[in-house]
């Protein structure tokens, strides 16, 4: 690998030229890493709903051509100036949000919203010089979330890379760099259900099932899944779900149904859909006196969260979380260890696998709602 | 005192015959305590806004005639059947909410909302037989929040009495049985500011100043008071408030003003007005990543709390509290100890004192917005 250090690399990338159109495998040029940057060889990547949302670009200003992808596992190829924490050969998970370790947020034990490197969906270039490291025939191709993992090589800020156990199988743990950790952390770090408690999970996609996995690990006695799609219930049993509620089956608001099932409300709820009505239900279904609701799913900008203040005055707590409250560099390696220790089960999240040249199939599966996680294998 | 045990007592009480009309000192009969009840001789009581609110009875129904009062200190005169934790002569604080020690809430570390004895503003009778212990010429006079302390003697459920240090001065600690503990606990038990942190307090009445006192005890470096009345600021300095904002002085929302003053937002906020806009401001003024807002003040029943969800997703926490999350029997005695240890200062909350016969003056002072707490001396 050392022969490519300091040089432009030519490799394959799945380029999105236009919103909503299939990605095209192109040969691109990847510039060497600059100050505080790292060039990473991606071995495995997976598709997350956030990639799809910005690829469709329905609601926001589109930035094309762009290389999407932010859930992945790779190996450091070379490092830029100022990088001391990583070296070529290290196994890493790129993360769509970062940890500079110097700002107030990084120094706080409670926050993971780094002032410098927190998620930025608008930015398509590197912080150092405001330019991209990808190009094709001199035409710049925009980055996505500072990761752009739908490429054999990518360039990422060192603060956005988690250095993980070299024994960890990248084709499994790549999925821990976004959705699954988001759900898992929402439960383990934020909701913190006690052993024997009851938990309601709203939304049984990958994030919700990961939240359920967290409840299982915490020893919850009842994990109630709420989803509009009954076909999800069977799959969800593998993740510890004990009961299911489909709001469509009831005339009354789902929070009332849950309150009846649980003698006053659940101890904890985790909301993983982003639907504002589900968020309100998730809050109003927790028990007074001690209930905690955690909001994970990201809603549309215009929706307002609304509730009667009495629901707060009778000692319910409402929290939100971002990336499961995990600090990318400090905490994600420990999540990988949970998998290595066999506490956390990851294989059950992986339902499909395709080669890089078939990456568009991953989009199809997700758009049809057929998959949890589809692994894209970079090497043929 | 033992000569009165088991007998009806005749004594003076301040009876509210009609909503909003001055109380009348009457001779009333107080029946002996039944099962799980205690008859208490009240020594000192104070007026709290909640008494006023239900006495005015503007927004909701209230039963009349009624004996109000729920902030007080007293001595046990006699106990009913099955009462083992208290004996005649014990010093107690009656509390408007209770602790049965048996239900899921009492058993939870986190809650103080006892299923059996939690605050009930509608109920005007005792739980045991659904009747009142007060009467005049056979006509029942209704209880208020299970305490009815505007009477020389009252009957209270044992679960609503905190047994306190007999050395504690009753004319001071009576104010700890509601408003000040509500505010203090909101900060110390729920917001839990760290030493050196910044705290915003909305509403600088007795509850807000109780919350500010909590922030002072916790070692907050900045305690920012928010109130429409500039005159409250001077008083508030005694309670550790370091800066003052009057929202009327600004065209932009007060949460933006606070965020600018604090490089992104305060670490903790405590909302003590019950005004719904203040509640929303109190939430939106805390820092993302780690900020916690605690709602204390009770709004009117049609109010809706509304905020963009991003404010949660960027790691702000919103909590509510009731009676400072203190369990009445288990925790209130330790609040009295905080005063006895000279950690907590109570005298500064007491701005007036009147004899029982002049109890209506306490109402006048509160209606005019004058003073913090007025002690009503029974003897």
Summarize the topology:
The complex is a heterodimer of chains A (380) and B (379).
Chain A: E1 9-15, E2 24-30, E3 37-46, H1 49-56, E4 71-79, E5 91-94, H2 104-107, E6 134-136, E7 139-141, E8 153-157, E9 161-163, H3 170-173, H4 179-191, E10 198-202, H5 206-218, E11 222-226, H6 232-236, E12 243-245, H7 254-261, E13 268-271, H8 276-284, E14 292-295, E15 305-307, H9 310-313, E16 317-320, H10 328-340, E17 350-355, H11 359-367, E18 373-377
Parallel strand pairs in A: 10-11, 10-13, 11-12, 13-14, 14-16, 17-18
Antiparallel strand pairs in A: 1-2, 2-6, 3-4, 3-8, 3-18, 4-5, 5-9, 6-7
Helix pairs in contact in A: 4-5
Chain B: E1 9-15, E2 24-30, E3 37-46, H1 49-56, E4 71-79, E5 91-94, H2 104-107, E6 134-136, E7 139-141, E8 153-157, E9 161-163, H3 170-173, H4 179-191, E10 198-202, H5 206-218, E11 222-226, H6 231-237, E12 243-245, H7 254-261, E13 268-271, H8 276-284, E14 292-295, E15 305-307, H9 310-313, E16 317-320, H10 328-340, E17 350-355, H11 359-367, E18 373-377
Parallel strand pairs in B: 10-11, 10-13, 11-12, 13-14, 14-16, 17-18
Antiparallel strand pairs in B: 1-2, 2-6, 3-4, 3-8, 3-18, 4-5, 5-9, 6-7
Helix pairs in contact in B: 4-5
Subcellular location (chain B): Cytoplasm
Cofactor (chain B): Zn(2+)
EC number (chain B): 1.1.1.1
